[in-house]
């Protein structure tokens, strides 16, 4: 029997992905013709994301504030964010989902704001991470947790990730892997010229604050969309960009919004790790 709370859906994918287009047509016909569930681009009850982790991440960012359940069908590599990894299981998992044979895992997002001369000049939310980075030089940063100094960085920058983002950029920066249902921040320095300090895993209710102390202004890089020149850039999930200046103060807190992901397998996260790293 179909879950009566699931009345509307949206299928999120990139049209240039031919594999995703194939599955879009197949699933769309199944839902609309056989089950009479309506498509809704605005505030769907659930969103089927067809693609890799980047596609699923984008769907989560667009629809989390409406409380939509994200059902990720992996068409990428490992698919840490996907609800289902293998195409042969897509339709069965969709049928199980509609019957309520799944669990909902709520994942934390982070909220960031930038203050300049006492005024808020930028805000954003991220599911994976916030990065402050000087791509072609060095930046001096001071990081605090609940107003306690924890890192003084003279290097490429700093990364603050959620547990969900621990397997993304954080992993490439040699940060720890954290189970995605743990609500925390992971603070990892990027190529510090000082003696390297380990990553910090911080409980979600402790705000992280970062102050831009200094950097050399050269202005030889610009954001392609706006043409705005920068030296030090703030990036939220690799999608929201903001050029930083000296004395800017960045505050990272847990967002009031949670992202709902559908899961079908027990120990799904560990199976993804096993597949990614070849554990036996």
Quick recap:
The chain has 280 residues and is of the alpha+beta class. 18% of the residues lie in helices and 42% in strands. The protein has helices at residues 18-34, 53-63, 90-98, 169-172, 268-277, and strands at 8-12, 38-39, 46-51, 69-74, 103-116, 119-126, 129-133, 139-145, 148-161, 184-192, 200-203, 208-215, 221-222, 229-230, 232-236, 240-244, 249-263.
Rg from alpha-carbon coordinates: 20 Å
CATH class of the largest domain: Mainly Beta
- Determine the structural class based on helices, strands and strand pairing: alpha+beta
How many structural units, i.e. domains? 2
The helix/strand series, from N terminus to C terminus, equals: EHEEHEHEEEEEHEEEEEEEEH
Poorly predicted ranges: none
Annotation field: number of helices: 5
| Strand segment tally | 17
Can you tell me the CATH architecture of the largest domain? Sandwich
For the termini, the CA-CA separation is: 39 Å
What overall geometry do the principal axes of the alpha carbons give?
A: elongated
């Amino acid at each position: 029997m179909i879950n009566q709370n699931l009345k509307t859906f949206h299928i999120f994918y990139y049209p240039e992905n031919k594999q995703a287009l194939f599955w879009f047509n197949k699933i769309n016909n199944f839902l609309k013709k056989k089950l009479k569930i309506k498509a809704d681009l605005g505030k769907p009850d659930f969103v089927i994301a067809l693609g890799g982790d980047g596609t699923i991440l984008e769907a989560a960012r667009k629809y989390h504030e409406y409380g939509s359940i994200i059902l990720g069908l992996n068409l990428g590599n490992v698919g840490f964010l996907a609800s289902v990894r293998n195409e042969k299981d897509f339709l069965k998992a969709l049928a199980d989902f509609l019957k309520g044979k799944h669990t909902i895992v709520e994942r934390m997002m982070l909220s960031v704001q930038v203050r300049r001369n006492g005024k808020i000049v930028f805000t954003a939310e991220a599911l994976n991470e916030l990065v402050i980075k000087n791509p072609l030089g060095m930046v001096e940063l001071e990081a605090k947790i609940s107003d306690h100094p924890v890192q003084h960085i003279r290097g490429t920058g700093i990364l603050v990730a959620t547990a969900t983002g621990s397997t993304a950029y954080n992993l490439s920066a040699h940060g720890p892997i954290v189970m995605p249902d743990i609500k925390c921040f992971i603070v990892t320095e990027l190529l510090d010229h000082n003696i390297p300090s380990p990553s910090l895993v911080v409980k979600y209710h402790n705000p992280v604050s970062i102050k831009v102390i200094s950097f050399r202004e050269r202005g030889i890089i610009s954001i392609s969309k706006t043409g705005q020149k920068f030296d030090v850039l703030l990036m939220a999930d690799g999608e929201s960009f903001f050029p930083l200046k000296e004395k800017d103060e960045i505050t990272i807190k847990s967002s009031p919004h949670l992202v709902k992901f559908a899961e079908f397998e027990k120990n799904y996260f560990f199976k993804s790790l096993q597949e990614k790293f070849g554990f036996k």
